[in-house]
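Per reviewer request, we include the raw input and output of the structure prediction for the construct analysed in the revised manuscript.
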Amino acid sequence: MKILQISYYFPPMGGAGVQRALKFAKYLPAFGVTPVVVSGFDPHYVQDASLTSELSKELVVQRVPHTPLLTKLAANRRARRVSMPASEVKASSAGLRNALLGAWNALHYPDDKAGWARTAWREARRLLRQEARRGVPFDLVFTTSPPASAHAIGERLSREFGLPWVADFRDLWTDNPAYLASRWRHVLDRRLEQRWLARATGIVTVTESWQRLLAARRSHGAPAAFIPNGYDEDDFAGLEHSSAFPGVFTLVHTGTFYGPRDPSAFLEGVSLYLQGPREGHDALRVRLVGNMGDRFRAQIKAFGERHPNVVECIEYLPHRQAIAELVAADVLLLVVGGGRGAGVRGWLPGKIFEYLRARKPILLLGDIDGDAAQLLRRHSRGWLVREGDGEGVAAALRSMLDLRSARASASHSPDACPDLDKPVACFERRELARRMAEFMRECAEKHHRSRKADNV
């Protein structure tokens, strides 16, 4: 089976957004599915050239250069501010920021990658025609979002070439908790999204809640699969489970705080813990690994002035180095939830599966009844704290450090999840690629049966 994969985020671009597309391209061939990739390339976006080593030499990737104007402006701003003292950086109003982002997004349809999509669509058409002339046609179009523009390409190609189309929603669009568009724009986006859901041969998403949400918007019996994000065992090969900071209790968060994912309540909880009794506790160190962004710089600086040498911000690391941070940590921090919309409960950051594979206790700050919390209850142990509950964070930290000093199991905590020995192999990327290959074949067969019926 040969598929055309449309993935804006793809190596050498880095960050969490590339992992799903990369790992499918890496492992689908083992299950009889050969992808050809049409991707984006933004030199101002975070880069991780180490990820290209995972790509097979046989994999064909057509990269379409594109940099959104907002990204260019942000890059220029960062360049001008390289020597600016942190004391001159001011925290911006979240309300104003959201309003400006909403206004910016309203100028682009369906999103700010629309310019890329026009060029990528032409490149995809060229590939489809070229391979058909060579006698090795494509069997299916596979698009993954965000950006939503990827699905616009998939819809056009499917209709023009009569191919089955699988649309992968690794994030929601109009039901996304971080969706900021105005009401009039929401109406337009919702209508377009509904058309895609109706026309796609099959849809895939990454949480059970989102699967139910999207399946309810499709006709009865239309394929809608839950294939989560996961971890790659290769990323953990050779990493030692030993603390990098003996005598220090290290709590690690990897990734970016963005949208409603905000470190404020966590920092409040750390501050409350530090102001309380800590007899017998090791020193606490918090490592925030990833691009923090301007929005939180002043906040973290102010925290550091009150509590020096507690929080460290480490810029984006190549993926394997970020995995090494997880393995060396004592506890991992996961911040979920926030925002509005029907998708809040299903918000399940992709890094949660790497957290699980690292087999370290996890402190979750967010919806304690959501999909992420339920997953942790089934497969990990740790502490679940409601969104915004700084006191709860402080209590969890005291519990962690008490247990550390007593050399006891975190499962003694009344708020702890089950132990760390629950199997997580069902989230390994090879297994997820196998499931995706099966779903693609199911969708292709459904498409061909439908076309035969239409021709009768």
